[in-house]
Structures are given as structure tokens and as C-alpha cells.
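thread: overnight batch results

M.L. [08:02]
morning all. the overnight job finished for the chain we discussed friday. pasting input first so we're all looking at the same thing
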Amino acid sequence: MAILEDDLVTEIFIEREHSRGVVGNIYKGRVSKVLPGMQSAFVNLGLERDAFLYVTDVISPSEAELEDEDEEPAIPPTPMIDADEAPAATPLATDTEGKTSPNPAQTHSQAQSSGQQRRSDRRREQAAPTAKIEELLKEGQEVVVQVVKEPLGTKGARITSHISLPGRFLV
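M.L. [08:03]
and the structure it wrote out:
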């Protein structure tokens, strides 16, 4: 395909049929098998082999709902804290010159315990299962998916329901 401006070729697009892959293609497929043990599903896209869809690549109904302007924001505002409710300051230790400074041993242990708490919270969030695949998909259900990895050998394509449309002509 060529784009002409004032009878001059400004851009030319060549589409090679033999080297075209399926990565990036968007399909409406039908769930052929749900595997709760693997937290995944196989989806028939009309290709040679069924495509593989992992549970984290499925958009749950809660993710799909868009927030209206009338609704409250997803992140609640931080409440104001009165001076009476403010947490107590760290105890101060007196050094040899009579000056007061934060107790370094206590400050270090508090920082270490808060760091450990943040790490354990992060691990819990990562380890926390999202939704179960059998709750999100049923056999025979139609889903819109995009191919993210080509089929290779005996394996089918890897797909996701998180659709992206990159391109220089998309505005």
C-alpha cells in the first residue's frame, strides 16, 4: 500500500504474508477447558492449537467496572488527625552534654520492625490469590483476548484479556 500526496509517494507499507505472526492480534475466543489446578484455561481462537490463558491475565468483573464521576474516588481521603489522637513521639535519651536526642537503639529497632512489616505485607499481597479461574471463566464462555506470545512447537499461543492497541496511527 502506498500513500500519495500531490502524485508523489510519501509512505509505502509492505505486508509480507509469509512472515506474519499472530502476536498482537485480538480474537473473540471460546473457553474450551478450565484447569483449576493450574489456575489457567485453554481458549479456542480458531488457530491450530488452543491458546493458554493464565488467571492473572483475565480481567475480573471488578476490574472491568469503570468509575463514574458521581462515585467516590477509589482511594479514600486520608482522615485528619487531632492533636489528642496523634501518636506519641519516640522517647528521648539524654546524652553526656545534657542535650536530648532520639534513642538510637529504639529508633533503629522501630525502623527495622516497620521495614519487616512492609516486606511481610508485600509478600502477603503477592502471595494472596487474586480470583480463582473457575470463578472467572466457565467452559463455553466467549472472551475477547489478545495474543502476547506466538505458538511454539506443541504449545498454543499465550493470551491475555488485557487488550492494548499500540501504534503510530492510533490517537
